[in-house]
Amino acid sequence: MSVDPRTTVLDRLWSPFEGQSGSRRSLLLMSPLILFELLVFVVPFLLLVRISFSEQSQGLPYAEGTFTIASYVQVLQSELLQGIIAYSFKLGIIATLLTVVLAVFYAYATWRASGVQKSALLFSVVLPLLTTLVIKTYVWVPLLAPNGTANSLLLAVSLVQAPLQMVPNTFGVVIGQVYIVFPYAMLAIYSVLTTVEWELVEAARDLGASRTRSFFAVVLPEIMPGITVATVISFAWSVGAYSAPALLGAGSDRPFALEVQEQMLVNFNWPIATALSTVMLVLMFVSILVIYAVLGRFGGDVANAT
């Protein structure tokens, strides 16, 4: 009698989990992921925090074995770094608002479409994800440049008398950042929209609700968990934006990611770079908690999403 070798191998792999309780079995199954998170995220973050409490050194990135809070004091007192933090959050708020609004209507249009039209709308969102971040950001330079495509069209239809300066400045940074995070926000909202029953919208319209009112009264509350996820993704990514400000921004368009790069690679001042990163991480964590709290009051509780 022959024994299927594949069955034997599977049985051997599963044997350590047999006889274990449900919670212990789940912990064993998750242990590789937990180990990965610890090695790749937790340990490097702890090293970053430790470096932020080190003294600055002239010839080295930081003075090993020292302890001081001078870097945090400098980050919190420096007007330059305070301006960089403020600009980072301003960019995050503007880009997030534009992204989420556009993502909601695009996801709704995709949800209501069918056949080839729906496939085309979904493909147009997924396609940018297949392109490297630098390339799909840099493509906006020839489009928004003073002699680029956008200005040529505006001049051709006589909407402007002279080319507009759209890059390098904050306008170009916002456009590029919205383009980067839009697919993720749209897919987060669309995934929740697919669980909404269209019969609810039809019932609201049968009771006299207009298209606009049925959307805000029926659809919008149902997709708030997706909007919450989209908001968090867009805000976190936009506050920490690097490629869009680096390629489309001017010298004054300086978020904290570019400042961290300069402090680490140019000034060789790792304590300041890590202290700034830690401060931004704490502020981001608090901001995300506020986002969850505010949107959760309008039905954006992700944990209760269906």
UniProtKB/TrEMBL annotation:
Belongs to the binding-protein-dependent transport system permease family. CysTW subfamily. The chain crosses the membrane at residues 33-53, 84-108, 120-141, 171-193, 214-237, 272-295. SUPFAM superfamilies: MetI-like. Residues 85-291 form the ABC transmembrane type-1 domain. Keywords: Cell membrane, Membrane, Transmembrane, Transmembrane helix, Transport. The keyword Transport applies. This is ABC transporter integral membrane protein. It comes from Haloarcula amylolytica JCM 13557. Its main location: membrane.
